């Protein structure tokens, strides 16, 4: 009898298997895979098929349709998701955060100095570290504040990188020079890589979270960053997601979206505060 190793491999992703994978991901994560992404999906999953000793995508789909599915979902999502991010990407958001969220809090009585911000879809951590640097530079004295950033993503690989806080010198070039001098440390044993300072690392908690599932945290948050995430969902899923975000925000709290995303016509519980920034009003 031939073993898996003896049989010829066929890594062609046909219609039936692609539709199964698209339905599976939509059901489990809310991510929508349009047909033009078939080649990307095929290319990224070939390594998983080889690692599992599977002959073809039919075998892989059969596994996802069985009791081993729970163990494979994390690997599947890690392979499929795209993580493109930079420090201080869309810099107007961080100016808005400073002037419209952080600075107004400076006059509050000490007993109210609690700040909670959520970076949803944080990728490898550049966004939450950009938020943390903005907080550390604005809220003074820092020790007078109970400030915390929740950084979540569905991809465990990028979360690990974010928690380590180590980036290439090219990555950190996007950080403003004054922040770079204060919050970035060169590694002694690796001059090509930098590490984020403890001052900002201690403000962030990295956690895995599937936005399509129940959320364990209760909030409320003063601001939520969810940039370039909703574009992977269909309109009904987007509407439900934005409504859940609204429930998690304080009244007047801010929701920051990506440059290609909008709440206009999607949710009447927000008003426009700035370019792709929305304030909860009800």
From TrEMBL:
It catalyses: L-glutamyl-[protein] + S-adenosyl-L-methionine = [protein]-L-glutamate 5-O-methyl ester + S-adenosyl-L-homocysteine. SUPFAM superfamilies: Chemotaxis receptor methyltransferase CheR, N-terminal domain, S-adenosyl-L-methionine-dependent methyltransferases. It is an enzyme of class 2 (transferase). GO terms for molecular function: protein-glutamate O-methyltransferase activity. Its EC number is 2.1.1.80. The keyword Methyltransferase applies. GO terms for biological process: methylation. It comes from the Bacteria. S-adenosyl-L-methionine binds at residues 83, 85, 89, 127, 153, 210-211, 227-228. Residues 6-282 form the CheR-type methyltransferase domain. Keywords: Methyltransferase, S-adenosyl-L-methionine, Transferase. Methylation of the membrane-bound methyl-accepting chemotaxis proteins (MCP) to form gamma-glutamyl methyl ester residues in MCP. This is Chemotaxis protein methyltransferase. The lineage of its organism: Bacteria, Pseudomonadati, Pseudomonadota, Alphaproteobacteria, Rhodospirillales.
């Amino acid at each position: 009898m031939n073993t898996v190793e003896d049989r010829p491999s066929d890594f062609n992703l046909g219609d039936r298997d692609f539709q199964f994978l698209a339905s599976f991901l939509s059901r489990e994560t809310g991510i929508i895979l349009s047909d033009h992404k078939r080649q990307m999906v095929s290319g990224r999953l070939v390594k998983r098929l080889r690692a599992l000793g599977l002959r073809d995508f039919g075998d892989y789909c059969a596994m996802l349709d069985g009791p081993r599915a729970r163990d494979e979902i994390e690997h599947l999502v890690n392979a499929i998701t795209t993580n493109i991010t930079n420090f201080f990407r869309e810099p107007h958001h961080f100016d808005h955060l400073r002037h419209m969220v952080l600075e107004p809090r400076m006059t509050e009585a000490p007993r109210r100095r609690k700040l909670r911000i959520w970076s949803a879809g944080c990728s490898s951590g550049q966004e939450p570290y950009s938020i943390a640097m903005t907080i550390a530079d604005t809220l003074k004295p820092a020790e007078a504040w109970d400030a915390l950033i929740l950084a979540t993503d569905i991809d465990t690989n990028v979360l690990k990188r974010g928690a380590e806080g180590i980036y290439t010198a090219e990555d950190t070039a996007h950080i403003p020079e004054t922040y770079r001098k204060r919050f970035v440390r060169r590694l002694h044993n690796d001059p090509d890589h930098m590490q984020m300072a403890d001052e900002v690392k201690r403000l962030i908690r990295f956690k895995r979270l599937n936005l399509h599932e129940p959320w364990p945290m209760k909030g409320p948050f003063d601001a939520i960053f969810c940039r370039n995430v909703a574009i992977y969902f269909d309109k009904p899923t987007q509407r439900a997601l934005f409504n859940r975000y609204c429930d998690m925000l304080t009244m007047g709290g801010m929701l920051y979206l990506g440059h290609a995303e909008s709440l206009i016509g999607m949710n009447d519980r927000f008003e426009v505060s700035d370019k792709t920034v929305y304030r909860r009003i009800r």
